[in-house]
Amino acid sequence: MKHIPIIPVPIDEAELALFEERRKIYPRTQTGWFSSWRWVLVFFTQALFYGTAWLNWNDRQAVLFDLVARKFYIFGLVLWPQDFIYLAVLLVISALSLFLFTAIAGRLFCGYACPQTVYTEIFLWIEAKVEGERNARIKLDASPMSAHKFSLKLLKHFIWITLALWTGFTFVGYFTPIRELAISVGDFTLGPWETFWFLFYGFATYGNAGWMREQVCKYMCPYARFQSAMFDKDTLIVTYDTARGDPRGSRNKKVDYKTQGLGDCVDCGICVQVCPTGIDIREGLQYECIACGACIDGCDQVMDKMGYERGLIRYTTEHALTRKLDDKAMWKRVFRARTLIYAGLLGLIILLAAVSLAMHTPLKVDVIKDRGMPKITETGAIENVYRLQVMNTQESARQYSVEVQGAAGAVIVNPADLEVGSATTKAFPVRVRVPANVLASGSNRIRFVVKDIDAPEVTVTEKAVFTVPR
Q: Is residue 32 a contact partner of residue 38, using CB atoms and an 8 Å limit?
């Protein structure tokens, strides 16, 4: 057999990059205006998430999504599967809000309110408190394993896991009453689905915020991929002013750097060191940028130390940067037709949803006709049997009256007053009798009117069919 030599083929750099190992990022702790706002949002979102589950309302949990009973309690509001339309409205509002805020100022949600960003910020804060600041963490990871290193790593992961499990516990507490859940955890009597979601959500928090961090934003989050479709040249983005900053270079503060042909950027690398995704914003806008503003805070502090004007890295638009627009002209273009349309639609939908909820009738009625043949009485009257499914969404027992309309002389034979417990559904058999020769043979339209006796304004009318034998 003839020997065929194997000729090595050079590996393309782009192909090699596909297999590049992850480079761990050590974000530097940063203070400043944007950092303060990020922590305000961290405190607000977590107080809302962890605290709301423990609030009570009318002797029950204030916010509870009871999937078993198919009831959603949101403070004084009780929603049932029939109210699914409100979930659709909520999703539409969320989508329009995302479009609006992205068109105005890019990835604001990602930088300040996304759970991935919020929990990564918390986990990084814990890491910095246990292991030290950026340089200390780099040095610790590079050092061989020792008792000191092991103890620090153990403490960090213990706090991470504890917080992650508490997060998973709180998440499940919105679907199972959290106080009952706490007792079940203490007694080791958690049900199978509670155990699964408790551990799954806790593991997801620990893995995403503790280990994967920026990888979720860069590779798993779909928003990073299609965000550019919502950007235009009048969208506020975190931008490096190339015309002002370049050429970059270190310099002596006492020397006139302009005579050396340098720009305002001292090439200190702070903007890269504070970035949670590890990018260099000076290379232009990149999809990995989550618009957190950490690089702005870092650069502004360097500018202050050098005695230069702030804003080398800032929130601005492409048009403002290239056309040298002042703030007034820039903001005028930010609130353009596109964003005004988004804002108008969003405001209209929120208004309609609020009006709908305010006018929400706490009574729902379904009428189901019995399949049996109509009954003819001794006097020739016709009787049809129905089942009324009455749903009381109020958190107090209610009594309702029922009457029939649409047929002269129609009466309800059995008792016409119905009592339904708080936030429950109850079925009632109802016999409707119509005198002979009032309705034509075949199907005839009638209406059931169900009215709250103590609150007559709460009234529901449902159509039904009354059958007369041929």
A: no
CA distance 113 to 108: 8
Domain-embedded: residue 1:
no
- Packed helices 33-52 and 147-172: angle between N→C axes, nearest 10 degrees: 50
Query: Is residue 29, in this structure, part of any structural domain at all?
Result: no
pLDDT at 8 over 70: no
Q: How far apart are CA 21 and CA 33, in angstroms?
A: 34
Residue 376 is assigned to a structural domain of this protein: yes
Q: Give pLDDT tens digits for 90-141.
A: 999 988 998 898 899 888 888 999 999 999 999 999 999 999 999 999 999 9
Half-sphere exposure (CA, 13 Å, Cβ side) for 396?
Answer: 7
At 76, list the tokens: 């004084």
Reported as a single tens digit per residue, the pLDDT across 277-314 is: 999 999 988 888 999 999 999 999 999 999 999 999 99
**Is 210:167 a contact under the CB 8 Å cutoff?**
no
pLDDT of residue 16: 47
Give the C-alpha distances (Å, rounded to integers) separating 219 from 7, 22, 213: 35, 12, 11
- 2: pLDDT strictly greater than 60: no
Instruction: List, as own/partner pairs, every contact residues 344-352 make where C-beta atoms lie below 8 angstroms and the sequence separation is at least 24, other chains included.
Output: 345/96, 346/93, 346/96, 346/97, 346/100, 349/89, 349/92, 349/93, 349/96, 350/93
Q: Residue 416 is part of a domain; what is its CATH number?
A: 2.60.40.10
Q: Are residues 379 and 319 in the same domain?
A: no
Split into its structural domains, the chain has a count of 2
Return d(Cα 156, Cα 151) in angstroms, integer.
9
Tell me how far apart the terminal alpha carbons of the chain are, to the nearest angstrom.
Answer: 95
Percent of the chain's residues with pLDDT above 90: 61
Range of the domain at 267: 232-324
Contact between residue 268 and residue 205 where contact means Cβ atoms under 8 Å apart: no
Closest by CA to 365, choosing from 417, 411, 426, 414, is 426
**6 or 52: which carries more pLDDT confidence?**
52
Asked whether residue 335 is domain-assigned, the answer is no
Residue with tokens 């610790």: 140
**Using an 8 Å Cβ cutoff, are 404 and 360 in contact?**
no
CA gap 413, 401 in Å, rounded:
13
Overall size of the chain counted in residues? 470
